[in-house]
Write a structure and sequence with these properties.
Layout (H helix, E strand, L loop, with lengths): L5 H12 L18 E5 L5 H5 L6 E6 L3 H10 L4 E3 L2 H8 L5 E4 L3 H12 L4 E5 L6 H13 L4 E4 L6 H11 L6 E8 L29 H5 L25 H10 L1 H6 L7 E7 L11 E7 L8 E7 L19 E6 L4 E3 L7 E2 L3 H10 L12 H11 L9 H20 L2 E5 L4 E2 L6 H4 L15
Parallel strand pairs: 1-2, 1-4, 2-3, 4-5, 5-6, 7-10
Antiparallel strand pairs: 7-11, 8-9, 8-14, 9-10, 11-12, 12-13, 14-15
Helix pairs in contact: 5-6, 6-13, 9-13
């Protein structure tokens, strides 16, 4: 891969990002001043990216599956098509301003690093990366290459999560010592996001025409193709995805993580695990996170329930039943409840009392609002007409790392004692191989920022 030097890159772009809240003087590769965008991962979640780019220039699109990407390719017939994003960046790096990445989890890091090494701004779908070392490296790389970054956890761009933060900061909840979260997935089946193979490991099948299986595997260890991996049911296999917890914690736990300044847990323990083949997620689990005291904020116990399991519905919550997915922050004064995403946050009180509180007592907003979602937030920042994205890599790497420690506990059905400062599990030998996973030859990135 050809790379530009850090000195040359900073000389041309330091005015864009250094210390600025509003990023001025955007310099586009395009004579029109529009952003030149490359899309990595065109099918599936990729559609959410290229549909937001109609006012910009989509100059390149990359997907390993021709059939999956067909709709996106048709929508941007002038964009150059690739199957390997490394080749795309090598050939078109000088023509690209920003890269939007919607691949399976195990490709997020390599795709983002490939782009950042060439000074490209990056938007990456959640969860941001596949392991803790990758997350730490992405955070460092964003500063090292001086680029604008964003993770696509949509709820972080909503009014709802801002209300939670404002209410906690205003002391409306009082101290919060307990958080409960629950999610009704994973659901299994051919049309769902999770599917169980007929046997473990999955049997070899013929590779479909139009799919480059070797490129789909990318950094992951080689294995035979099976339809249970693609196009979207890879999530249940820990070699490629991070299960339901890794995927949805970036939504459901975003509000407590931000508003309570949770940081990293020092203990995560799997309290219940329904059992699963090696390397595959369980149908059901309950994970307990223990967060130590942070300044004057008390320790917090957070419990994650999935597979239809829910916390006990406490009488004082005054709820007939808990919704399919949700989150409750238990405060000394008031509780806060959201759905699986933080978009629609409420204080837990009878409707008449809530309506009166909204009309007469809700504090005025103190945090700037985001219009039109995280993609627009990212594009505005790149163009210099908006603030840095809220879920930039300084924030989103930490949110995702918190979830990743939980995924380790769930994967091995065990107690994890975590030394965040040294990025180490202290009560198990061999966990370093999962904190930083081995990759296939040709897929190593990030060592230059350490």
């Amino acid at each position: 891969m050809n790379t530009i030097s850090r000195r040359n890159f900073l000389r041309t772009t330091s005015a864009i990002t250094a210390g600025a809240v509003i990023i001025p003087n955007f310099i586009s590769c395009s004579p029109s001043g529009k952003i030149n965008i490359a899309i990595v991962g065109v099918g599936g979640r990729g559609k959410a990216q290229w549909e937001t780019c109609t006012m910009e220039n989509v100059v390149a699109m990359c997907d390993v599956d021709d059939d999956r990407a067909a709709e996106g390719f048709a929508a941007y017939p002038k964009a150059k098509r690739y199957k390997d994003y490394r080749k795309m960046m090598d050939e078109m790096g000088s023509q690209i301003d920003a890269v939007m990445i919607s691949t399976p989890d195990h490709h997020h890091f390599a795709a983002a690093m490939t782009a950042m090494q060439l000074g490209k701004h990056v938007y990456v779908e959640k969860p941001l990366a596949h392991n803790i070392w990758q997350l730490r490296t992405l955070q460092k790389a964003a500063h090292y290459y001086n680029v604008i970054t964003q993770m696509g956890n949509q709820g972080h761009a909503t009014d709802g999560i801002r209300r939670v933060k404002e209410w906690v900061d205003a002391g409306i909840t009082g101290n919060v010592k307990e958080v409960f979260a629950w999610f009704d997935g994973p659901e299994f089946g051919p049309t769902k996001y999770f599917q169980k193979p007929d046997q473990f490991p999955p049997a070899a099948e013929a590779i479909p025409d139009g799919l480059d299986w070797d490129l789909w595997l990318g950094p992951a260890a080689n294995r035979p193709y099976n339809h249970v991996y693609v196009p979207k049911t890879w999530r249940g296999f820990y070699d490629f995805g991070n299960g339901e917890l890794g995927d949805w914690a970036c939504h459901t736990l975003d509000a407590p993580f931000w508003s309570l300044d949770l940081g990293m847990p020092n203990v995560v323990e799997t309290e219940f695990h329904s059992g699963a083949p090696e390397g595959f997620l369980p149908d059901q689990s309950i994970i307990r996170f223990e967060f130590p005291q942070r300044g004057n904020k008390p320790p917090v116990i957070l419990k994650w329930h999935e597979g239809g399991l829910k916390p006990e519905n406490r009488p004082e919550w005054n709820l007939p039943e808990l919704a399919g997915s949700g989150m409750i922050m238990v405060g000394e004064k008031h509780n806060i409840i959201t759905g699986g995403r933080p978009n629609d946050a409420k204080l837990m009180m009878p409707k008449e009392e809530w309506d009166n509180w909204v009309a007469n007592e809700m504090p005025a907003p103190t945090i700037p609002r985001v219009a039109d979602g995280p993609q627009k937030e990212f594009l505005d920042a790149v163009k210099g007409v908006g603030p840095l994205p809220g879920s930039n890599f300084d924030y989103s790497t930490r949110l995702t790392e918190m979830a990743a420690v939980g995924v380790l506990s769930q994967r091995f059905n065990t107690r994890i004692e975590y030394d965040a400062e040294n990025m180490k599990v202290t009560n198990h030998e061999g966990m370093e191989n999962y904190i930083k996973e081995p990759v296939r030859e040709g897929w190593s990135y990030g060592e230059e920022v350490w």
